[in-house]
Amino acid sequence: MSATHTRLHRLLLAAYPPSFQARYGVELEALTADSSWSSRVAVDLLLNAARAWVRPVSIGNGTERRRWRFEATMSTVFVAWCVALVAMGGFSRGVDDSALPGLRSEPVASFFHTAESSFSITTLVLSVGLFYYACLVLLPAIRRNRRGVWLPVALPIVSAGAWAGLSVLLGFLVAHLTQPGSPALALLIPVGILLFAWVATGGVCFLACATGATMALRRAHLRESLLVPGAIGGALLAAGMVVSAVAASICVIGLLGYNPASDLLIPAGAIVVLLASSAVAAVSSVRGLIGLRPRSAA
Amino acid sequence: MTRPTGQPRWRDPGLLVMGSLSSGAKHGYAITQDVSKTLGIVLGPGTLYGALARLEERHLIEALAGDERRRPYRLTATGIRVLSEQTEGMLRFAAIAKANLSKLKPNAAALELPS
């Protein structure tokens, strides 16, 4: 198998949930190395990675199993929330920035505001949770210099900083470009390169944010009792996401009565992503709540 | 991932894996080779490990100590019981279907239907 195919296989294996990778990653990598590369193998890995996220498996017994369940719930809900954040941005921009006429209607506007405010509440809940686990995981990891734990969290911070810096620079250049008498042609290539770097850094930042925290959590190997608040918080987050997705869907359906469907393509696409991510979060958090039941029933 | 035509739809990956393990403990690669050789079904790596994970979660199979890259798996006592129940059910189904088909064939010929 060529080096490119090996890299592609590794990339596909990285799409599996961390718990799955921890248990079967080495074996799966050995098996894919033995298999000849084909698009069929790639699709097989991709579909089963998606399935492993939607329907995760728990290995081990008793406490370890419950601990794993809470970790899986927290990781899945967090990644789903990150995806929903992007989708929510697309929905809000698509509806509010375009100042669609249907938004003047009272019921439609109220659903729009419900979607936005419930998502803001999830952001608040997540911020509290992140702060709690940062104190619990990050500070001891930094004190003991456990690079494996703090490094996955440092990468999103660094990439977010780089992205913010690029945003400022891009904004400055675009503002300069639109000024009368500016050397527009000379600035066009740097702006293009910067725009590409901005999009790429944004993608890296998003991926690092979505995976870094979950990786750090798994590596910290917290005991079961410390993960219980996370599982409860995950359920609250998922509930807020579901409310937000439903309200946003009703809002878009309501807008269809006032605006042509072509104006609502971006919000509708965002709603599909929002519904899918909130469904994944809801299923995972229900499993987490089931794990909270007394040991005999778990 | 491919199914030869005319084969029954008993190709649930979990069942195939358990069937393969019924002849003894095997690691992932050996399971795919065995299933491919005996049934002509190619299990993709993702499908295989998805099935192994679900079977292990339900305590139907267990991993044995060995090379981390090629860990062998075997059926547990529960797995043996579940597999025998499944195969018994399949045999019963096959026997009933075969008997029904043998009754159906003359009728089909009388009605000039393709048998």
Describe the structure.
The complex is a heterodimer of chains A (298) and B (115). Chain A contains 9 helices and no strands. By secondary structure, chain A is mainly alpha-helical. In chain A, helix 4 packs parallel to helix 8 (224-255). Chain A starts with a helix and ends in a 7-residue tail after the last helix. The model of chain A has no long low-confidence stretch (mean pLDDT 84). Chain B has 115 residues and is mainly alpha-helical. Chain B is built from 4 helices and 2 strands; from the N terminus they run H-H-H-E-E-H. The longest helix of chain B is centred in the C-terminal third of the chain and has 34 residues, at 77-110. The two termini of chain B are 29 Å apart. Classes of the chains: A mainly alpha (298), B mainly alpha (115). Chain A binds chain B through residues 20, 23-24, 26-32, 34-35, 40-41, 44-49, 51-52, 57-59, and chain B through 1, 27-29, 32, 44-50, 52-54, 56-57, 68-71.
Global geometry of chain A: globular
Mean pLDDT of chain A: 84
User: Regions of chain B with pLDDT < 50 over 5+ consecutive residues?
Assistant: 1-8
* Outline type of chain B: elongated
Q: What is the number of beta strands of chain A?
A: 0
Largest sheet: number of strands, sense, barrel closure of chain B: 2 strands, antiparallel
- Percent helix of chain A: over 70%
> Structural class, from helix and strand content of chain B?
mainly alpha
Secondary structure: number of strands of chain B: 2
Enumerate the strands of the largest sheet of chain B in spatial order, edge to edge or round the barrel. 1-2
Question: What is the oligomer described by this structure?
Answer: heterodimer
CATH superfamily of chain B: Winged helix-like DNA-binding domain superfamily/Winged helix DNA-binding domain
Proportion of strand residues of chain B: 5-15%
Number of helices of chain B: 4
Mean pLDDT across every amino acid position of chain B: 84
The stretches of 5 or more residues of chain A where confidence is low (pLDDT under 50) are none
